[in-house]
Design brief:
A hairpin with a 2-residue loop joins strand 4 and strand 5. The chain is α+β, with helices and mostly antiparallel strands. Helix 2 runs antiparallel to helix 3. The chain is rod-shaped and about 105 Å long. The longest helix has 72 residues. The mean pLDDT is 82. The chain has four helices and five strands; from the N terminus they run αααββαβββ. Strands 2-1-5-4-3 form a five-stranded antiparallel β-sheet.
Length: 192
């Protein structure tokens, strides 16, 4: 046993003292409670840190997505602007209207409008906007840009494409695009 006298004295001491038993049980219970509390506190810290890190990752991913989306919108708005410019030079406003009505059928495109050189909305996917002042409808959007531009307004992206004619500006195309955040994208399901 490794104890003198076969551990008889130690066994006798443990068997004879109920107070020693109670103290031992209380000490073990307090140790378990302390360990559980410490573990719970540590888990809380880890969870808070994970939430903070997730928020930072989502913010960075959203910024990256917005920058990439802006670049792609600027690039894809150029051919649409050229098509609209060509139709305007031919006074074919029916084709311009067809382009506007078609583009809003695309996912995340909220609206499209053609602003005339006089600052009034000439055609729009939302007919209620037509003949209104563009400054009133598209507040904060510079319509006199010389090249395609993408602006962030109210969480949406506004694509502004000038339509230049031979003798000056014929109009400005304005697209409203619903910006996507990293939170909007569904995480892939783990494979089983």
């Amino acid at each position: 046993d490794g104890f003198p006298n076969g551990g008889v004295l130690v066994r006798r001491g443990l068997q004879g003292s109920s107070r020693l038993h109670a103290v031992g049980i209380v000490a073990l219970a307090m140790g378990l409670v302390g360990r559980t509390a410490a573990r719970s506190i540590e888990i809380g810290r880890i969870e808070r840190r994970a939430i903070d890190e997730r928020g930072e990752i989502l913010r960075a991913a959203t910024e990256t997505m917005t920058a990439q989306t802006s670049a792609l919108l600027r690039l894809s708005a150029l051919p649409l602007g050229w098509a609209i410019r060509s139709a305007m030079l031919k006074d074919d406003m029916g084709s311009v209207d067809t382009y506007l009505q078609r583009i809003v059928q695309e996912r995340h495109v909220k609206g499209a409008a053609l602003v005339g050189a006089d600052g009034k909305v000439r055609l729009a996917s939302n007919r209620k906007l037509e003949e209104r002042q563009a400054a009133e409808v598209f507040g904060g959007v510079a319509l006199n840009e010389q090249s395609p531009n993408v602006l962030t307004t109210d969480g949406d992206l506004r694509v502004v494409v000038p339509g230049m004619g031979y003798d000056g500006r014929r109009g400005t195309l304005v697209l409203s695009y619903m910006a996507t955040t990293a939170r909007d994208i569904e995480a892939p399901k783990p494979e089983s």
